[in-house]
Amino acid sequence: MTLGPLEYLVIGFDGDRFDGSIAAQIEKVVDKGIIRLVDVVFVTRDAEGAAVVVELSNTDDPRFASFAHLLVELKALFTPGDLEEIADSLPLGTSGLVLLFEHRWAEDLKDAIGAAGGFLVTRAVVPPEVLAEVSAELEAASSQTA
Question: Cα dihedral angle (32, 36, 41, 43), rounded to 10 degrees?
Answer without folding.
Answer: -70
